């Protein structure tokens, strides 16, 4: 029996990502496990219970301290902890780096290293994003340039639709407050989506850093996956909020309104239900067979004849 297990109680079973609440932001509190419960304790000692196993991603804003027990329980429950900046618009670090399934990681790395397979994956991403096949005989760099031009055009169309004064996408993570309203709204919106996409990537057993269109960043694959759905989820929310702010019809800070809108958009589009099949489908476009798990692979932390979680869960 693990040292943190309670006598007489079965070990917890991870809840699949698609059945969870998408995001929870916390700030200015201590996260701990008290009497077996994951709780947030404020400065006056008031405890707020957080059903950690039912949340896909918890974003920790400044002022949060996390105990070892809380990190341990979140990891076992398959809940991603992400350390973010003020208003959740800077992403500093995330728990559970890398996937928990070596066979998935090896497959993802093999696809990324094979130039032909990588191009097939990028072409599939293009088709999913724009609803049409990618142009023939184009390199990855050329497809990246085509996507960039289309994205700029989509930003312009969304700004016009919501009556937003739009210049261009400009964001300095070190001087967030210097950005205009639409750019601050977009940064807040994409941060929400990045947290959720990274939680899905880890839950599926893959690595956030091994990207295909994006490379060289700790979250390259996160950006790849988020780009596939952001114009149907968070980008319209950001411009809608920015438009209300410009007209003086927003009764709360832009970042908070964007969070609420993203939460509703994730629920409306059933995004959690779609993310892991979307990730698998994108990688399958590379036409390389999945490797079988090695016979001597280390098994899960506890054995469950009817596992309820996703492939990448450690618990």
Helix/strand layout:
Blueprint: E1 21-26, E2 29-34, E3 37-41, E4 47-49, E5 55-60, E6 64-66, H1 68-77, E7 80-84, E8 91-94, H2 102-113, H3 115-130, H4 140-161, H5 181-204, H6 220-229, H7 234-246, H8 254-268, H9 271-284
Parallel strand pairs: 1-5, 2-6, 5-7
Antiparallel strand pairs: 2-3, 3-4, 7-8
Helix pairs in contact: 3-6, 5-6, 5-7, 5-8, 5-9, 7-8
Keywords:
four-stranded mixed beta sheet, Ribosomal Protein L15, Chain: K, domain 2, Four Helix Bundle (Hemerythrin (Met), subunit A), alpha/beta, 8 strands, 9 helices, 315 residues
Can you put this structure into words, describing what you see?
This protein is an alpha/beta fold and 315 residues long. It has two domains: 17-94, Ribosomal Protein L15, Chain: K, domain 2, CATH 3.100.10; 102-284, Up-down Bundle (Four Helix Bundle (Hemerythrin (Met), subunit A)), CATH 1.20.120.920. It contains nine helices and eight strands. It has a four-stranded mixed sheet with strand order 1-5-7-8, with helices on both faces. The chain has a four-stranded mixed sheet with strand order 4-3-2-6, with helices on one face. Strand 2 (29-34) and strand 3 form a beta hairpin. Helix 7 (234-246) runs antiparallel to helix 8 (254-268).
Which consecutive residue ranges, at least 5 long each, have pLDDT under 50? 300-304
CATH level 1 class label of the largest domain: Mainly Alpha
Q: What is the end-to-end distance? A: 14 Å
Number of strands: 8
Strand order of the largest sheet: 1-5-7-8
User: Structural class of the secondary structure composition?
Assistant: alpha/beta
The Cα radius of gyration reads 20 Å
How many structurally independent domains? 2
Helix content: 40-55%
Listing every helix as H and every strand as E from the N terminus to the C terminus, the arrangement reads: EEEEEEHEEHHHHHHHH
- CATH-level-4 superfamily name of the largest domain: CRISPR-associated endonuclease Cas1, C-terminal domain
Main sheet, how many strands, which sense, barrel? Answer: 4 strands, mixed
Topology-level CATH name of the largest domain: Four Helix Bundle (Hemerythrin (Met), subunit A)
Can you tell me the overall shape? flat
Mean pLDDT: 86
- Beta-strand portion reads 5-15%
């Amino acid at each position: 029996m693990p040292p943190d297990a309670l006598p007489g109680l079965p070990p917890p079973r991870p809840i699949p990502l698609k059945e969870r609440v998408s995001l929870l932001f916390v700030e200015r509190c201590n996260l701990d496990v008290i009497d077996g419960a994951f709780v947030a304790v404020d400065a006056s000692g008031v405890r707020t219970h957080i059903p950690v196993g039912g949340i896909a991603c918890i974003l920790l804003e400044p002022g949060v301290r996390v105990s070892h027990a809380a990190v341990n329980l979140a990891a076992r429950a398959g809940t991603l902890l992400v350390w973010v900046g003020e208003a959740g618009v800077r992403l500093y670090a995330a728990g559970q780096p890398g996937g928990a399934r070596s066979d998935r990681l090896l497959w993802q790395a093999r696809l990324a290293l094979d130039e032909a397979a990588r191009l097939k994956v990028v072409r599939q991403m293009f088709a999913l994003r724009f609803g049409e096949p990618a142009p023939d005989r184009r390199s990855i760099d050329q497809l990246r340039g085509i996507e960039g031009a289309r994205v700029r055009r989509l930003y312009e169309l969304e700004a016009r639709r919501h009556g937003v004064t739009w210049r261009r996408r400009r964001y300095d993570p070190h001087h967030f407050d210097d950005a205009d309203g639409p750019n601050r709204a977009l940064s807040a919106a994409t941060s929400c989506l990045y947290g959720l996409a990274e939680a899905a990537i880890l839950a599926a057993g893959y690595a956030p850093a091994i990207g295909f269109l994006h490379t060289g960043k700790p979250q390259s694959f996160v950006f790849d996956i988020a780009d596939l759905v952001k114009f149907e989820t968070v980008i319209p929310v950001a411009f809608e909020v920015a438009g209300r702010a410009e007209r003086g019809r927003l009764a709360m800070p832009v970042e908070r309104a964007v969070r609420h809108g993203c939460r509703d958009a994730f629920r409306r589009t059933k995004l959690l239900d779609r993310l892991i099949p979307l990730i698998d489908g994108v990688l399958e476009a590379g036409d390389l067979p999945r490797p079988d798990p090695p016979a001597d692979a280390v098994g899960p932390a506890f054995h469950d004849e009817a596992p309820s979680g996703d492939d990448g869960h450690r618990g």
